[in-house]
Amino acid sequence: MPKKKKSKSKSKGLFALEKGPTPSKMEPKEITGLYNVGPGQKFQTEEDIIKFFKYKLEEKLGEGGFGVVYIAVDQTTNARQACKMCQLGNNMNDSRIMDMKNELFIMEKVKHLYIVKLMKHFMCLTPTGNRLYIFMELADGGDFGKFMSKTGPLTEPQAKLYFAQIICGINHMHSLGIAHRDIKPGNILLKKDTTSLTGDFLLLVTDFGLSRIQHHDNQGQIAMNRTVCGTPIFMAPEILLRKPYVAFGVDIWALGVTLYIMMTSHLPFDFRDRAKAVKDMVEKKWTFDEDVMKSKPSKEYCSLMQRMIDPNPEQRITMQQLTKDKWLADSYNKAQKLANQLKRKK
Ligand SMILES: Nc1ncnc2c1ncn2[C@@H]1O[C@H](COP(=O)(O)OP(=O)(O)O)[C@@H](O)[C@H]1O
Ligand SMILES: [Mg+2]
After folding, report:
1. Ligand 1, CB within 6 Å, residue ranges
2. Looking at the Swiss-Prot or TrEMBL record, what is one Pfam family this protein matches (predicted)?
3. For 140, how many CA atoms within 13 A lie in the half-sphere containing its CB?
4. 23-137 falls under which CATH superfamily?
């Protein structure tokens, strides 16, 4: 039956998730449980709902533009988790609702050792505004940005083993067709784990508020993104220059800036003058301050850095090439092996 064959070959190059429903077309109730709170309702307060799900909120862990993150205790198991409480306003068409739908949808799909695990979620609808509660795996070692500001520059062998874990997590997302779009050390969390690659922490990719499923266009090319998003110092030049961009390549750039920071504790480009920073990116005007580094950077590391922060997105190293890169491949394979071994546990 030729007809069947045709549709098969057409869908061959598509990402796993672009065939299914996308969060933008889904109602909030299709994504999470909605609970009315207030007089005359089953639940009088948000606390009643939290209790109903057998959780207890404890101390504050962190804060962001969205709201607050608390430690939560799952009272059925006494296990500690993290609870991200997002303040959403009471308009269901709010852009924050859009981000939250994406965040939850994506967290449901990405299950991997190096990605923070989603445990439970629901939204409380109150007369003063809606609040989303996301319960997830607790990262009890803080975030990678704070960790690096304490440790200072890492050695190459250390950097490799941490970076390989981040690459494993992001590669998993990319292989499903999801771009993270806000990669930076502050969105990589640490979980104490003596069985991890470095024997101290497991690295967990988090914060999927800006993550999006990517699609192919009619010509079978990956569709371009246009939204300017992310954190400026991690943004690729094509975004800063307001060009349409391929989100996977932009993730690679942000990973490159992250790897540069890991080895130097500095930024590759000086954003005090943003226009100059963009000019330097495009002209590849960046160097290593070897005086601050633990040792002279290896040829392999320098070559990888050049290919990650390549201003030409068409020439920039791809995720597939990155996993096979001379500097990274061994550590990447170790990180992946560990993820495969622990798959059943997660
Ligand atoms: N699972 C978690 N375990 C521990 N701390 C967390 C967890 N999730 C978030 N945090 C803390 O809250 C901060 C903000 O969370 P994040 O998801 O990055 O939100 P935002 O969208 O505001 O950046 C993190 O930098 C971290 O300090
Ligand atoms: Mg964040």
Report:
1. 61-62, 64-66, 69, 82, 84, 116, 136-139, 143, 186-187, 189, 206-207, 209
2. Pkinase
3. 10
4. Phosphorylase Kinase; domain 1 (3.30.200.20)
